[in-house]
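Handout, page 2. Input:
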Amino acid sequence: MNRDSTLSRRTVLSAFRIMSKKYDAIVVGGGHNGLICAAYLAKAGKKVLVLEMRHVLGGAAVSEELYPGFTFSVFSYVVSLLRPHIIRELNLTRHGLEIIPLECSFLPLPDGDSLCRWADPELTRREIMRFSSRDADMYPEFGLALKKIAYFVKRIVDNPAPDPTSSNPIELLKMLRLAKSFRSVGDDLVYLHTKLLTMSAVDFLDMWFESDVLKAPMSVSGIIGTFLGVRSPGTAYVLLHHYMGEIDGAFRAWGFSKGGTGQVSLAAAAAAREHGAEIRTEAPVVQFLIRRGTCKGVVLDGGEEILAGHVFSSLDPQRTFVGLIENGQLDPDFVSRIKRYKLRGSSGKVNLALDRFPDFSCRPGDGPHVRGDIAIAPSIEYLERAYDEAKYGEFSQRPYLNVVIPSLVDPSLAPPGKHVMSIFVQYAPYYVNGGPSSWPEKREAFGDAVVDTLAEYCPGLKDAVLYRQVLTPWDMEQQIGLGEGNIFQGELSLEQLLFQRPTAGWARYRTPIKHLWLCGSGAHPGGGVMGAPGELAAKTFLGTLGG
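Output:
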């Protein structure tokens, strides 16, 4: 290259830097948390840019037409934890979000019997009575107790994590108020909450119920997003985390997003754009620009540099701090702690396009029992055996399945008379025998195990399949950047919650790199289609500016 061409190139680069915009904030990752963060920042008058590596927005909360005429919630499948105040504050309903309540939990059983838990308490009582009159009486008491605890926990979920090590008077006052609130729930509930923190989901449920038919499908809420079994200590608290679902203020109300879970993300994107945020797809970030300990912007694949006053990462903590930051920029002890942060993806997903209604032999016909979630969890022993296989590096041959058929309540997802079926699968360990890279050769066998298991309860299923998509943890990592395929960007185990998410001292969205923030599920309060990490990161930042 001659001197003139070198000077010409430098002139072009200088001109590009002069002409390029500088943003108040760049949000890395166009999943629902990143978009909600961007919407709050833009609403506050900040100049915001969102960068998403894929061609479509949503991250794990995305809807795509994978087969002509069929729209799938590809990775997630229900809206369980989306905070109602976020819907109100960002006017997400006006931007196209419509939640259809999920009003039944259906458990088919191998002997041809079944159990349904309905929105109607009396119908549920009659169902449970067939298996245990004692459990039928205890079920509403259990729900009331967890509802009271959940109202207390709601204060933690809807606020930045408390910092027990802080000497800041404001933080100490917050901790004192939290302690008073905790005591105000009463001694019995304090005792119960302590049990929740330490017990397994099964042991906790044993305090209330006697029937395996009821306990098994209830216990699985304690293992979703964790590489643990239903008898593993600590899973009782994860059960409570999933019990926090709210729609219009009603606890334990889960639902379908009309158009798929991607509509949550698209509504947040519309809210962000309404307030002036820019959003770019097919813009993968490969590095954070860090100068003297301060984040100045990002570098895109291809070399483009974009400058900003602050950068918000909705990526998981390991990808944020290990993948996109050069060696030597962070304290080695901090890096070591982040590398020990447990991702441990343990679940997979199978999406089916069906040419007819999938009939369950125990309750034939298209009724309200199949318009909620359908659990294949016939017993505690069944669930523990599924976990045993995963512990030793194999996917479960007879896994726990959580199935929904959203096209029954949202016909726009499939052609008339045809259906979309979404199957969440536990267990599918990321570190399968042969290593994560062996998943492509195991993928279809895993899919077969899932369909074969479900077909035992739904005999005509295999003949109805028009299209099948099988997603392993490795696929989720490759396609949407979820580290180890963990759907919550890190296990919801006790040592990774509250002020320890992602690590002690850095649980309030700030990071050791000045002007670099976390806003994804790897930050407090954790995973699920809730939007709280994105909201709280934005509000924490705006608080530092007095806005």
